[in-house]
Design a protein that fits this description.
By secondary structure, the protein is mainly α. It has a single domain, classed as Na+/H+ antiporter like fold (Up-down Bundle). The chain is globular. 40% of the residues are buried.
Length: 415
Protein backbone atom coordinates (compact mmCIF):
# COMPACT_ATOMS: atom_id res chain seq x y z
CA UNK A 1 0.00 0.00 0.00
CA UNK A 2 1.35 3.41 -0.96
CA UNK A 3 2.14 6.19 1.48
CA UNK A 4 -0.54 8.44 -0.04
CA UNK A 5 -3.22 5.77 0.48
CA UNK A 6 -2.17 5.41 4.11
CA UNK A 7 -2.30 9.18 4.51
CA UNK A 8 -5.90 9.22 3.29
CA UNK A 9 -6.84 6.38 5.68
CA UNK A 10 -5.18 8.18 8.60
CA UNK A 11 -6.77 11.56 7.81
CA UNK A 12 -10.41 10.36 7.82
CA UNK A 13 -10.63 9.67 11.60
CA UNK A 14 -8.88 12.96 12.39
CA UNK A 15 -11.35 14.84 10.19
CA UNK A 16 -14.23 13.22 12.08
CA UNK A 17 -12.75 14.39 15.38
CA UNK A 18 -12.27 17.91 13.98
CA UNK A 19 -15.88 18.14 12.76
CA UNK A 20 -17.32 17.03 16.11
CA UNK A 21 -14.90 19.29 18.02
CA UNK A 22 -15.83 22.30 15.87
CA UNK A 23 -19.52 21.55 16.43
CA UNK A 24 -18.97 21.41 20.19
CA UNK A 25 -17.12 24.74 20.10
CA UNK A 26 -19.96 26.29 18.08
CA UNK A 27 -22.64 25.00 20.47
CA UNK A 28 -20.70 26.50 23.39
CA UNK A 29 -20.72 30.05 21.96
CA UNK A 30 -22.69 32.62 23.94
CA UNK A 31 -24.85 33.43 20.92
CA UNK A 32 -25.89 29.77 20.62
CA UNK A 33 -25.69 28.79 24.32
CA UNK A 34 -26.70 25.15 23.87
CA UNK A 35 -23.57 23.78 25.59
CA UNK A 36 -22.79 26.48 28.10
CA UNK A 37 -20.42 25.95 30.99
CA UNK A 38 -23.05 24.54 33.36
CA UNK A 39 -24.41 22.25 30.63
CA UNK A 40 -20.93 20.97 29.82
CA UNK A 41 -20.26 20.21 33.47
CA UNK A 42 -23.49 18.25 33.86
CA UNK A 43 -23.04 16.34 30.60
CA UNK A 44 -19.41 15.70 31.48
CA UNK A 45 -20.51 14.14 34.77
CA UNK A 46 -22.89 11.89 32.86
CA UNK A 47 -20.11 10.85 30.50
CA UNK A 48 -17.68 10.28 33.38
CA UNK A 49 -20.02 8.22 35.58
CA UNK A 50 -22.25 6.49 33.00
CA UNK A 51 -21.19 6.53 29.34
CA UNK A 52 -17.43 5.94 29.64
CA UNK A 53 -17.69 3.01 32.13
CA UNK A 54 -20.39 1.42 29.93
CA UNK A 55 -18.20 1.83 26.85
CA UNK A 56 -15.08 0.40 28.50
CA UNK A 57 -16.82 -2.46 30.29
CA UNK A 58 -19.01 -3.61 27.38
CA UNK A 59 -16.20 -3.62 24.83
CA UNK A 60 -13.75 -5.42 27.10
CA UNK A 61 -16.38 -8.00 28.05
CA UNK A 62 -17.14 -8.74 24.40
CA UNK A 63 -13.60 -8.94 23.08
CA UNK A 64 -11.33 -9.91 25.97
CA UNK A 65 -10.89 -13.53 26.99
CA UNK A 66 -8.58 -15.25 29.45
CA UNK A 67 -6.13 -16.02 26.64
CA UNK A 68 -6.13 -12.48 25.27
CA UNK A 69 -5.53 -11.01 28.74
CA UNK A 70 -2.19 -12.80 28.83
CA UNK A 71 -1.31 -11.26 25.45
CA UNK A 72 -2.14 -7.68 26.51
CA UNK A 73 0.23 -7.57 29.51
CA UNK A 74 2.63 -5.29 27.66
CA UNK A 75 0.20 -2.37 27.21
CA UNK A 76 0.27 -1.19 30.88
CA UNK A 77 4.08 -1.23 30.76
CA UNK A 78 4.13 0.69 27.48
CA UNK A 79 1.76 3.36 28.85
CA UNK A 80 3.91 3.66 31.99
CA UNK A 81 6.95 4.22 29.77
CA UNK A 82 5.12 7.04 27.93
CA UNK A 83 4.40 8.74 31.27
CA UNK A 84 7.98 8.39 32.50
CA UNK A 85 9.62 9.63 29.28
CA UNK A 86 7.13 12.48 29.05
CA UNK A 87 7.81 13.46 32.67
CA UNK A 88 11.57 13.47 32.07
CA UNK A 89 11.22 15.62 28.96
CA UNK A 90 8.81 17.92 30.81
CA UNK A 91 11.28 18.30 33.69
CA UNK A 92 13.97 19.35 31.19
CA UNK A 93 11.51 21.83 29.66
CA UNK A 94 10.74 23.29 33.10
CA UNK A 95 14.44 23.77 33.85
CA UNK A 96 15.38 25.21 30.47
CA UNK A 97 12.48 27.70 30.26
CA UNK A 98 12.48 28.53 34.00
CA UNK A 99 8.79 27.86 34.39
CA UNK A 100 7.00 29.66 37.29
CA UNK A 101 6.17 27.48 40.28
CA UNK A 102 2.40 27.52 39.79
CA UNK A 103 2.80 26.22 36.21
CA UNK A 104 5.27 23.38 36.84
CA UNK A 105 2.54 20.82 37.52
CA UNK A 106 0.68 21.88 34.38
CA UNK A 107 3.77 21.55 32.16
CA UNK A 108 4.81 18.20 33.64
CA UNK A 109 1.26 16.85 33.40
CA UNK A 110 0.80 17.93 29.76
CA UNK A 111 4.12 16.35 28.79
CA UNK A 112 3.49 13.11 30.70
CA UNK A 113 -0.17 12.28 30.05
CA UNK A 114 -1.70 11.87 26.62
CA UNK A 115 -5.36 11.48 25.67
CA UNK A 116 -5.29 7.70 25.97
CA UNK A 117 -9.05 7.25 26.07
CA UNK A 118 -11.17 9.35 23.78
CA UNK A 119 -8.91 9.67 20.74
CA UNK A 120 -7.90 5.99 20.37
CA UNK A 121 -11.55 4.98 20.72
CA UNK A 122 -12.39 7.32 17.85
CA UNK A 123 -9.34 6.77 15.64
CA UNK A 124 -8.87 3.00 15.72
CA UNK A 125 -12.41 1.85 14.81
CA UNK A 126 -12.58 4.54 12.11
CA UNK A 127 -9.32 3.29 10.59
CA UNK A 128 -10.66 -0.28 10.58
CA UNK A 129 -13.76 0.80 8.62
CA UNK A 130 -11.71 2.18 5.73
CA UNK A 131 -11.41 -0.09 2.69
CA UNK A 132 -7.68 0.56 2.34
CA UNK A 133 -6.96 -0.22 5.99
CA UNK A 134 -3.83 -2.37 6.50
CA UNK A 135 -5.39 -4.20 9.46
CA UNK A 136 -7.46 -6.82 7.63
CA UNK A 137 -11.14 -7.69 7.99
CA UNK A 138 -13.14 -4.61 9.16
CA UNK A 139 -15.38 -6.48 11.62
CA UNK A 140 -12.64 -8.36 13.48
CA UNK A 141 -10.40 -5.30 13.27
CA UNK A 142 -13.07 -3.09 14.81
CA UNK A 143 -13.73 -5.57 17.63
CA UNK A 144 -10.04 -5.70 18.53
CA UNK A 145 -9.71 -1.94 18.12
CA UNK A 146 -12.44 -1.30 20.69
CA UNK A 147 -10.84 -3.77 23.11
CA UNK A 148 -7.38 -2.22 22.76
CA UNK A 149 -8.63 1.36 23.02
CA UNK A 150 -10.90 0.54 25.99
CA UNK A 151 -7.99 -1.05 27.81
CA UNK A 152 -5.89 2.01 26.97
CA UNK A 153 -8.56 4.26 28.46
CA UNK A 154 -8.78 2.23 31.67
CA UNK A 155 -5.03 2.03 32.24
CA UNK A 156 -4.59 5.68 31.33
CA UNK A 157 -7.21 6.65 33.93
CA UNK A 158 -5.30 4.77 36.65
CA UNK A 159 -1.99 6.46 35.80
CA UNK A 160 -3.69 9.86 35.39
CA UNK A 161 -5.29 9.89 38.83
CA UNK A 162 -2.39 8.28 40.68
CA UNK A 163 0.66 9.82 38.99
CA UNK A 164 -0.26 13.09 37.23
CA UNK A 165 -2.85 14.03 39.86
CA UNK A 166 -0.20 14.04 42.57
CA UNK A 167 2.28 15.93 40.38
CA UNK A 168 -0.25 18.75 39.92
CA UNK A 169 -1.25 18.61 43.59
CA UNK A 170 2.30 18.79 44.95
CA UNK A 171 3.22 21.56 42.51
CA UNK A 172 0.22 23.67 43.50
CA UNK A 173 0.96 23.14 47.21
CA UNK A 174 4.56 24.25 46.78
CA UNK A 175 3.46 27.32 44.85
CA UNK A 176 0.97 28.21 47.60
CA UNK A 177 3.61 27.78 50.32
CA UNK A 178 6.09 30.17 48.70
CA UNK A 179 6.66 33.21 50.94
CA UNK A 180 5.24 36.46 49.66
CA UNK A 181 7.53 39.46 49.52
CA UNK A 182 6.32 42.18 51.93
CA UNK A 183 7.59 45.70 51.37
CA UNK A 184 9.28 47.17 54.47
CA UNK A 185 7.45 49.98 56.21
CA UNK A 186 8.90 52.97 58.07
CA UNK A 187 5.69 54.03 59.78
CA UNK A 188 6.70 54.22 63.41
CA UNK A 189 3.14 54.47 64.75
CA UNK A 190 2.06 51.40 62.76
CA UNK A 191 4.96 49.40 64.14
CA UNK A 192 4.12 50.48 67.66
CA UNK A 193 0.49 49.41 67.21
CA UNK A 194 1.44 45.99 65.85
CA UNK A 195 4.12 45.40 68.51
CA UNK A 196 2.60 47.19 71.50
CA UNK A 197 4.20 44.82 74.01
CA UNK A 198 7.82 43.70 74.16
CA UNK A 199 8.62 40.02 73.92
CA UNK A 200 10.52 40.09 77.22
CA UNK A 201 10.56 42.92 79.74
CA UNK A 202 13.92 44.14 80.91
CA UNK A 203 12.90 43.73 84.57
CA UNK A 204 11.72 40.15 84.20
CA UNK A 205 14.61 38.40 85.93
CA UNK A 206 16.35 41.15 87.79
CA UNK A 207 16.00 39.63 91.24
CA UNK A 208 16.86 36.17 92.43
CA UNK A 209 13.50 35.83 94.16
CA UNK A 210 11.63 35.91 90.91
CA UNK A 211 13.43 32.84 89.70
CA UNK A 212 12.13 30.68 92.54
CA UNK A 213 8.79 30.14 90.79
CA UNK A 214 10.33 28.59 87.67
CA UNK A 215 10.29 24.83 87.13
CA UNK A 216 13.63 23.17 86.45
CA UNK A 217 13.43 20.11 84.21
CA UNK A 218 16.07 17.41 84.49
CA UNK A 219 16.68 15.53 81.20
CA UNK A 220 16.84 11.78 81.93
CA UNK A 221 17.90 9.28 79.25
CA UNK A 222 15.10 7.19 77.78
CA UNK A 223 14.71 3.73 79.26
CA UNK A 224 12.23 2.24 76.77
CA UNK A 225 12.28 -1.48 76.42
CA UNK A 226 12.82 -3.15 73.03
CA UNK A 227 9.10 -4.06 73.02
CA UNK A 228 8.10 -0.40 73.36
CA UNK A 229 10.46 0.53 70.55
CA UNK A 230 8.96 -2.18 68.32
CA UNK A 231 5.45 -0.93 69.06
CA UNK A 232 6.43 2.66 68.31
CA UNK A 233 8.08 1.64 65.02
CA UNK A 234 5.00 -0.36 64.01
CA UNK A 235 2.80 2.62 64.90
CA UNK A 236 4.95 4.91 62.76
CA UNK A 237 4.77 2.49 59.85
CA UNK A 238 0.97 2.38 60.04
CA UNK A 239 0.78 6.17 60.27
CA UNK A 240 3.02 6.52 57.21
CA UNK A 241 0.84 4.06 55.29
CA UNK A 242 -2.27 6.06 56.17
CA UNK A 243 -0.59 9.29 55.03
CA UNK A 244 0.54 7.61 51.80
CA UNK A 245 -2.99 6.36 51.11
CA UNK A 246 -4.36 9.86 51.58
CA UNK A 247 -1.72 11.46 49.37
CA UNK A 248 -2.13 9.18 46.37
CA UNK A 249 -5.92 9.59 46.55
CA UNK A 250 -6.96 5.94 46.37
CA UNK A 251 -10.54 7.01 45.77
CA UNK A 252 -9.49 8.57 42.46
CA UNK A 253 -7.73 5.37 41.39
CA UNK A 254 -11.09 3.61 41.33
CA UNK A 255 -12.54 5.97 38.74
CA UNK A 256 -15.73 4.77 37.02
CA UNK A 257 -13.80 3.85 33.86
CA UNK A 258 -11.41 1.74 35.94
CA UNK A 259 -14.33 -0.02 37.65
CA UNK A 260 -15.89 -0.60 34.23
CA UNK A 261 -12.63 -2.14 33.02
CA UNK A 262 -12.47 -4.46 36.04
CA UNK A 263 -16.05 -5.58 35.44
CA UNK A 264 -15.32 -6.11 31.75
CA UNK A 265 -12.25 -8.22 32.53
CA UNK A 266 -14.20 -10.36 35.01
CA UNK A 267 -17.07 -10.95 32.58
CA UNK A 268 -14.80 -11.65 29.63
CA UNK A 269 -12.14 -13.61 31.51
CA UNK A 270 -14.39 -15.96 33.51
CA UNK A 271 -15.88 -18.52 31.07
CA UNK A 272 -19.02 -19.19 33.14
CA UNK A 273 -19.96 -15.51 33.43
CA UNK A 274 -19.11 -14.96 29.77
CA UNK A 275 -21.53 -17.70 28.68
CA UNK A 276 -24.29 -16.14 30.79
CA UNK A 277 -23.92 -12.58 29.43
CA UNK A 278 -22.09 -12.56 26.09
CA UNK A 279 -23.51 -13.90 22.84
CA UNK A 280 -26.86 -14.27 21.10
CA UNK A 281 -27.84 -17.32 23.15
CA UNK A 282 -26.77 -15.89 26.55
CA UNK A 283 -29.67 -15.71 29.02
CA UNK A 284 -28.58 -12.30 30.39
CA UNK A 285 -27.51 -10.78 27.07
CA UNK A 286 -29.92 -7.87 27.64
CA UNK A 287 -27.43 -6.47 30.21
CA UNK A 288 -24.66 -6.42 27.62
CA UNK A 289 -26.96 -4.86 25.02
CA UNK A 290 -27.95 -2.11 27.44
CA UNK A 291 -24.33 -1.36 28.28
CA UNK A 292 -23.47 -1.22 24.57
CA UNK A 293 -26.34 1.20 23.99
CA UNK A 294 -25.03 3.52 26.69
CA UNK A 295 -21.44 3.15 25.54
CA UNK A 296 -22.26 4.19 21.98
CA UNK A 297 -23.18 7.65 23.29
CA UNK A 298 -19.79 8.20 24.95
CA UNK A 299 -17.69 9.02 21.87
CA UNK A 300 -19.81 11.81 20.32
CA UNK A 301 -20.68 13.36 23.69
CA UNK A 302 -17.11 13.44 24.96
CA UNK A 303 -15.87 14.92 21.66
CA UNK A 304 -18.52 17.65 21.76
CA UNK A 305 -17.55 18.48 25.36
CA UNK A 306 -13.90 18.63 24.32
CA UNK A 307 -14.76 21.18 21.63
CA UNK A 308 -16.77 23.26 24.07
CA UNK A 309 -13.96 23.27 26.62
CA UNK A 310 -11.51 24.54 24.01
CA UNK A 311 -13.56 27.74 23.82
CA UNK A 312 -12.08 28.77 27.15
CA UNK A 313 -8.67 28.89 25.52
CA UNK A 314 -9.85 31.65 23.18
CA UNK A 315 -10.97 33.76 26.12
CA UNK A 316 -8.24 33.01 28.65
CA UNK A 317 -5.22 35.11 29.44
CA UNK A 318 -2.04 34.58 27.52
CA UNK A 319 0.84 32.24 28.27
CA UNK A 320 4.41 32.38 27.07
CA UNK A 321 4.61 31.10 23.53
CA UNK A 322 7.80 29.22 24.35
CA UNK A 323 5.91 27.03 26.87
CA UNK A 324 3.22 26.07 24.36
CA UNK A 325 5.82 25.40 21.66
CA UNK A 326 7.88 23.36 24.13
CA UNK A 327 4.91 21.17 25.08
CA UNK A 328 4.05 20.56 21.42
CA UNK A 329 7.69 19.73 20.67
CA UNK A 330 7.70 17.16 23.47
CA UNK A 331 4.38 15.54 22.59
CA UNK A 332 4.52 15.74 18.78
CA UNK A 333 8.22 15.32 18.00
CA UNK A 334 10.32 13.88 20.82
CA UNK A 335 7.85 11.43 22.39
CA UNK A 336 6.91 9.71 19.07
CA UNK A 337 10.61 9.30 18.25
CA UNK A 338 11.23 7.71 21.66
CA UNK A 339 8.10 5.58 21.13
CA UNK A 340 9.41 4.17 17.86
CA UNK A 341 12.68 3.27 19.57
CA UNK A 342 10.89 1.58 22.49
CA UNK A 343 8.49 -0.45 20.31
CA UNK A 344 11.32 -1.46 17.95
CA UNK A 345 13.30 -2.62 20.96
CA UNK A 346 10.37 -4.67 22.28
CA UNK A 347 9.92 -6.21 18.83
CA UNK A 348 13.63 -7.07 18.66
CA UNK A 349 13.37 -8.79 22.06
CA UNK A 350 10.40 -10.82 20.83
CA UNK A 351 7.98 -9.42 23.43
CA UNK A 352 5.34 -8.16 20.98
CA UNK A 353 2.63 -10.36 19.53
CA UNK A 354 2.26 -10.60 15.77
CA UNK A 355 -0.65 -8.18 15.50
CA UNK A 356 -0.16 -4.99 13.43
CA UNK A 357 -3.13 -3.26 15.08
CA UNK A 358 -1.72 -3.93 18.56
CA UNK A 359 1.68 -2.55 17.56
CA UNK A 360 -0.05 0.45 15.97
CA UNK A 361 -1.86 1.45 19.17
CA UNK A 362 1.35 1.06 21.19
CA UNK A 363 3.00 3.53 18.82
CA UNK A 364 -0.02 5.83 18.77
CA UNK A 365 0.07 6.19 22.56
CA UNK A 366 3.29 8.21 22.19
CA UNK A 367 1.84 10.74 19.69
CA UNK A 368 -1.40 11.85 21.38
CA UNK A 369 -2.16 15.41 22.59
CA UNK A 370 -2.34 16.14 26.34
CA UNK A 371 -5.14 14.57 28.35
CA UNK A 372 -8.20 16.79 28.85
CA UNK A 373 -8.44 15.71 32.51
CA UNK A 374 -5.42 17.90 33.29
CA UNK A 375 -7.77 20.87 32.96
CA UNK A 376 -9.99 19.34 35.64
CA UNK A 377 -6.98 18.95 37.94
CA UNK A 378 -5.79 22.54 37.49
CA UNK A 379 -9.33 23.73 38.18
CA UNK A 380 -9.46 21.59 41.32
CA UNK A 381 -6.24 23.03 42.78
CA UNK A 382 -6.55 26.53 41.30
CA UNK A 383 -3.09 26.54 39.72
CA UNK A 384 -2.70 27.36 36.02
CA UNK A 385 -6.36 26.91 35.07
CA UNK A 386 -6.49 29.70 32.46
CA UNK A 387 -3.05 28.78 31.09
CA UNK A 388 -4.22 25.17 30.72
CA UNK A 389 -7.07 26.30 28.48
CA UNK A 390 -4.62 28.05 26.17
CA UNK A 391 -2.32 25.01 26.09
CA UNK A 392 -5.22 22.69 25.24
CA UNK A 393 -6.47 25.02 22.50
CA UNK A 394 -3.19 25.14 20.60
CA UNK A 395 -2.09 21.56 21.21
CA UNK A 396 -5.41 20.22 19.93
CA UNK A 397 -5.38 22.64 17.00
CA UNK A 398 -2.03 21.21 15.87
CA UNK A 399 -2.99 17.64 16.82
CA UNK A 400 -4.94 17.22 13.58
CA UNK A 401 -1.80 17.62 11.48
CA UNK A 402 0.52 15.79 13.87
CA UNK A 403 -1.78 12.79 14.41
CA UNK A 404 -2.42 12.42 10.68
CA UNK A 405 1.29 12.40 9.82
CA UNK A 406 2.33 10.10 12.65
CA UNK A 407 -0.61 7.72 12.10
CA UNK A 408 0.36 7.46 8.44
CA UNK A 409 3.97 6.69 9.34
CA UNK A 410 2.99 4.19 12.03
CA UNK A 411 0.71 2.30 9.62
CA UNK A 412 3.52 2.24 7.10
CA UNK A 413 5.83 0.76 9.76
CA UNK A 414 3.47 -2.04 10.80
CA UNK A 415 2.08 -2.92 7.37
Amino acid sequence: MGFLDLFVVASIPILKVLILTALGLYLALDTVDIMGESTRKNVNRMAFFVFNPALVGSNLARTVTYQSILKLWLMPINILITFLIGSALGWVLVKVLRVPSHLKGLILGCCAAGNLGNLPIIILPAVCKEKSSPFGDPESCQAKAMAYSSLSMAIGAVYMWSYVFNIVRISSMKAAEEPKVVEPTTDKQKLQQEFSEPLLTSTRCNSEDETDGYVHVLMIPSSKSPTDRTVSIWTKVMQNLEIFAEKINLKSLLAPSTIGAIVGFVIGGVPLIRRLMIGQSAPFRVIEDSALLLGDAAIPIVTLIMGGNLLRGLRSCGIRKSLVIGIMAVRYILLPIFGIAVVKGLTYLGLLQDDPLYVFILLLQYALPPAMNIGTMTQLFGAGESECSVVMLWTYAFASLSLTLWSTYFMWLVS
